[in-house]
Specification:
single chain, alpha+beta, Arc Repressor Mutant, subunit A, three-stranded mixed sheet, two-stranded antiparallel sheet, globular, metal-binding, DNA-binding transcription factor activity, Fur_C, repressor
């Protein structure tokens, strides 16, 4: 079973309540995949999630994970890291629709999600100047996190 701390239990409870309010099912498999994503600071690929899921559900197959990921993305509980085709937890748990900026460490693979309304406004303003309406965007910045850069200086 996935280890879930108290903070994660609150997040799971909140997610269950959101699903109930929306009239969508938060099945045990969806919940498990979500817990696996939440348990890691790194972005997880579908096959990494499948391997972890198979520890408790040996008969789990790729479609199980892909369906769970599709649901979690659709509900706004997770984000896809486009450049690595992997997934992370949404820091706002879909409290509101938002665009995020992901900082991805190329050494340890940790991902930090930032939300900057001024950046989004700037992008929307620049697009508007060209008569363009943004419907979706992905901002991913690759580099080295503070922890990894500190480790290389020692």
């Amino acid at each position: 079973m996935v280890m879930v701390n108290i903070l994660d239990q609150e997040l799971i409870k909140q997610t269950e309540e959101i699903c109930a309010a929306r009239g969508v099912r938060f099945t045990p498999q969806r919940k498990q995949v979500f817990q696996l994503i939440c348990a890691s600071p790194k972005a997880s690929s579908a096959y990494e999630l499948l391997e972890q899921l198979q520890i408790t559900e040996p008969k789990a197959k790729p479609p199980t994970v892909y369906r769970a990921l599709d649901f979690l993305l659709e509900q706004g509980f997770i984000h896809r890291v486009e450049s690595t085709n992997s997934f992370i937890q949404c820091c706002s748990c879909n409290a509101h629709k938002h665009y995020s900026h992901l900082l991805i460490c190329d050494k340890c693979s940790n991902v930090i999600e930032l939300q900057d309304d001024s950046l989004v406004a700037l992008l929307a303003n620049n697009a508007e100047k060209h008569g363009f309406t943004i419907t979706n965007h992905v901002i991913e910045s690759h580099g080295i996190c503070l922890s990894c850069s500190s480790n290389t200086e020692e």
